[in-house]
């Protein structure tokens, strides 16, 4: 997919030509990313009986970074980390959400998302396109403390929602508590204390029968 194959939202009601060209380009991008509010995830909300959308997820991650930064094992730049979590799912506007436990959809996920990143960030002025694409690449590579913590938040947030739902996506057919632990273990790359808490939620959920038993915890 590229931007030429998508009719931009701004094109349905074009901005006045009297607006500065750079600003008009930025505003068109901001209108386009309103699509993020329509991309549904698998995670259930804690407050109401419906699924979370990507925009809600991104906002929650940004707040989690602010609140939980003190638990990072490495010093992080909070502002930069917030940028990472706000940018990381924008590509799903064009690539769609890939559920964590959907192996089949995960096969071409990276390829789909790279194409989407080129199309979406390319809507911005060149300097900002380069900056946001670099942030997206940084998140995906996880080579910086900020990226590792951002990824930890990305895995911790749905864990909390699934706990509140008494299972949620932990009940996905074929998924066991061990699968959940394996997928969430990346939290430990950024914070030993947050992973210890996350592991306790998974273990207790298994004991309560909210996930299929793995091999590590007694449910008796």
TrEMBL record:
Residues 50-168 form the HD/PDEase domain. It catalyses: a 2'-deoxyribonucleoside 5'-phosphate + H2O = a 2'-deoxyribonucleoside + phosphate. Pfam families: HD_3. Keywords: Hydrolase, Metal-binding. It comes from the Bacteria. InterPro entries: HD/PDEase_dom, HD_domain, YfbR/HDDC2. It is an enzyme of class 3 (hydrolase). Its EC number is 3.1.3.89. Its cofactor is Co(2+); Mn(2+). PANTHER family: 5'-DEOXYNUCLEOTIDASE HDDC2. Homodimer. This is 5'-deoxynucleotidase. It comes from Amycolatopsis cynarae.
């Amino acid at each position: 997919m590229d931007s030429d194959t998508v009719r931009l939202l701004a094109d349905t009601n074009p901005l006045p030509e009297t607006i500065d060209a750079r600003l008009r380009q930025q505003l068109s991008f901001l209108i386009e990313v309103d699509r993020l509010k329509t991309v549904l995830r698998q995670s259930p909300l804690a407050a109401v009986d419906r699924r979370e959308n990507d925009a809600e997820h991104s906002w929650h991650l940004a707040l989690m970074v602010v609140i939980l930064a003190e638990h990072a094992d490495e010093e992080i730049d909070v502002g930069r980390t917030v940028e990472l979590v706000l940018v990381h799912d924008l590509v799903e506007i064009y690539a769609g959400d890939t559920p964590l436990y959907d192996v089949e959809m995960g096969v071409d996920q990276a390829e789909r998302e790279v194409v989407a990143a080129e199309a979406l960030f390319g809507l911005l002025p060149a300097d900002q396109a380069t900056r946001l694409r670099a942030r997206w690449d940084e998140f995906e590579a996880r080579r910086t403390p900020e990226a590792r913590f951002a990824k930890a938040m990305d895995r911790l947030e749905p864990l909390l929602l699934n706990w509140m739902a008494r299972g949620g996506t932990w009940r996905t057919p074929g998924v066991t508590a061990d699968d959940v632990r394996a997928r969430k273990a990346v939290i430990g790359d950024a914070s030993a204390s947050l992973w210890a808490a996350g592991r306790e939620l998974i273990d207790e959920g298994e004991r309560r029968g909210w996930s299929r038993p793995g091999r590590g915890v007694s449910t008796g």
